[in-house]
Design brief:
alpha/beta, Alpha-Beta Plaits, Rossmann fold, 2 domains, seven-stranded mixed beta sheet, 14 strands, about 30% strand
């Protein structure tokens, strides 16, 4: 699959985070940011359909310093390996998210990933926050990682007590990345990867669901999660900002979930719900 990079000059990391949340309403599949720029990646076919809307959005935010460019897909892994630094997630159960060429950290849960063009390197606040919460909860049984990207959250869950995981992503590039990552992390025998959306979920039940997506997609998928989570099972959601808590909470309650925990970091939120 071919990709387009949207490179935006930003004032600071806070603006980058806000724009990431806004752009998540469009089919962007990966984001990178620092203090001066935000880079967002979208399939070329999807870019052609929404370029005008994205440009209008940026203009409404008074942003004119941005550019679209084609990505040389074959160079992605090489570029990533040269730039990527391990991510250490602090907590009672420390986690290290790393590339194959980095060393494991003694005493930390070891998560090895191969991101290709997939979201989920651990550098974004939501991935680290979700990973920390998964470790704290020590989730058991069979889980679903919806919008899995690299599969980083599924790997954390398996290494912190889960038995089996189904990983789902709509993009075949992400699915390949997930297969690579679970193999590198030594949990491939516990993972089933499916390409698609809620359409690939059979009439099956899960003990828990992990979903780090965005507000609009989460609200759309909540009724499906309610059907697929066993009574008493948990739903962990992130990918939305603090200002969206009221909306996600209302949708969760409407679908029969009780909100058990809400944590916020750098304006990003993780919400833990339980199926009543």
């Amino acid at each position: 699959m071919q990709y387009v990079e949207l490179n935006i000059n930003v004032k600071d990391e806070e603006q980058a985070d806000i724009l990431t949340a806004m752009l998540s309403d469009y089919p962007f599949e990966a984001f990178e940011s620092d203090a001066s720029s935000l880079r967002a990646y979208i399939p070329t076919t999807e870019h052609e359909l929404c370029r005008r809307q994205v440009s209008t959005l940026l203009e409404e935010w008074d942003i004119s310093d941005y550019a679209f460019s084609e990505v040389e897909q074959q160079n992605w892994n090489q570029q990533w390996e040269s730039d990527f630094e391990p991510v250490d997630v602090e907590g009672a159960t420390p986690i290290r998210i790393r590339a194959p060429h980095h060393e494991a950290k003694e005493g930390a849960v070891d998560v090895v990933i191969a991101p290709r063009m997939s979201f989920g390197t651990g550098h974004h606040t939501t991935t680290a926050l979700m990973s920390q919460t998964i470790a704290e909860l020590s989730l058991k049984g069979r889980g679903l990682d919806m919008g899995c990207g690299t599969g980083v959250l599924a790997i954390v869950a398996l290494k912190c007590g889960a038995e089996k995981m189904v990983c789902v992503d709509i993009d075949d590039w992400a699915c390949d990345s997930c297969r690579d990552s679970v193999s590198l992390s030594g949990v491939e025998h516990k993972v089933e990867v499916r390409c698609g959306s809620t359409d690939v979920l059979r009439r099956e039940q899960f003990d828990f669901v992990l979903a780090n997506i965005n507000r609009n997609i989460l609200q759309m998928m909540l009724p499906h999660f309610a059907q697929r989570i066993s009574e008493g099972g948990q739903l962990l959601m992130s990918g939305f900002l603090g200002e969206d808590i009221v909306h996600i909470t209302a949708s969760a309650l409407e679908c029969g979930f009780a909100v058990e925990q809400v944590k916020e970091r750098d304006e990003w939120v993780v919400m833990v719900c339980r199926k009543e």
